[in-house]
Amino acid sequence: MTEDSQRNFRSVYYEKVGFRGVEEKKSLEILLKDDRLDTEKLCTFSQRFPLPSMYRALVWKVLLGILPPHHESHAQVMMYRKEQYSDVLHALKVVRFVSDATPQVEVYLRMYQLECGKLPRSPSFPLEPEDEAFLAIAKAMEEMVEDSVDCYWIIRCFVNQLNNKYRDSLPHLPKAFEQYLNLEDSRLLSHLRTCSAVSRLPYELWFKRCFAGCLPESSLQRVWDKVVSGSCKILVFVAVEILLTFKIKVMALNSAEKITKFLENIPQDSSDAIVSKAIDLWHKHCGTPVHSA
């Protein structure tokens, strides 16, 4: 039996006995042992499989450029990252923009604003929509990443990825959503159009906040694996699958306002199934894209 056929046999066996992902975890551990991490292979793995929770923060930090590919540099680079974190936090405390009582996600926002040169003149200034999106993403990330320094850097680079790498792609996601929903269920799309709901769907929540505040973190991190590793288009298929999952409920609603309100507060107990089906849909329509927006 060849090595590939042995691996395929083991994968089928493990899946049958309830250990789906054992082979994938071993494959990732092999990739992470390389002296110089291969970011292309890590991207491909993250696109194809969910990352094991014990390795997620490390892989995200490498793919987001927080850590370099070389293992021997990781400790020193993270020391620099920690020092920068402390310096920025100290500066905010000196100018009394934050205090020990400031909620952690707001601290992250003010740090990001200061580093980007966008700190307002006063903490009492109203937040911009992009600030609200940052806070939503930060709140979700805080549930996924325990260490505050890691958490800030991942949020910072995740948001920068949305604002830079995906800047031209994000505005086209609502149209792509219509296209794929039409392919999957044209009657459902017709109902949304009849109710004048298509233009009023929660695109801000879905695409600018990447479902932060919509899906629980346990499901959300599987979606963000794909975003971090190169595809924001996965967000389209999560939105499509939400509509397909709650089709009966949505078809029973006859106004854009009611439909939008429901979609902004979907039941949480179906989220794992929604994400799994969305990933299947994504692979069905896009293959296994790497670095594709």
From TrEMBL:
Q: InterPro entries, alphabetically? A: Rab-GAP-TBC_dom (IPR000195), Rab-GAP_TBC_sf (IPR035969), TBC1D7 (IPR039842), TBC1D7_dom2 (IPR043039)
Keyword Cytoplasm on entry: yes
Instruction: Just give the chief location class.
Output: cytoplasm
Record-linked Gene3D superfamilies: Ypt/Rab-GAP domain of gyp1p, domain 1, Ypt/Rab-GAP domain of gyp1p, domain 2, Ypt/Rab-GAP domain of gyp1p, domain 3
Entry GO MF terms? GTPase activator activity; small GTPase binding
Please verify whether the record's keywords include Cytoplasm: yes
Domain Rab-GAP TBC: residue ranges = 50-231
* One CC-aspect GO term: ciliary basal body
Mention one GO biological process in which this protein takes part, according to its record: negative regulation of cilium assembly
Pfam families linked? RabGAP-TBC
The protein's location, in the record's own words, is: Cytoplasm, Cytosol; Cytoplasmic vesicle; Lysosome membrane
Q: Keywords assigned by UniProt? A: Cytoplasm, Cytoplasmic vesicle, GTPase activation, Lysosome, Membrane
Q: Which domain of life is it from?
A: Eukaryota
Subunit composition and interactions: Component of the TSC-TBC complex (also named Rhebulator complex), composed of 2 molecules of TSC1, 2 molecules of TSC2 and 1 molecule of TBC1D7. Interacts with TSC1 (via C-terminal half of the coiled-coil domain).
What biological function has been recorded for the protein in this entry? Non-catalytic component of the TSC-TBC complex, a multiprotein complex that acts as a negative regulator of the canonical mTORC1 complex, an evolutionarily conserved central nutrient sensor that stimulates anabolic reactions and macromolecule biosynthesis to promote cellular biomass generation and growth. The TSC-TBC complex acts as a GTPase-activating protein (GAP) for the small GTPase RHEB, a direct activator of the protein kinase activity of mTORC1.
- The name on file for this protein is TBC1 domain family member 7
Organism expressing this protein natively: Sciurus vulgaris
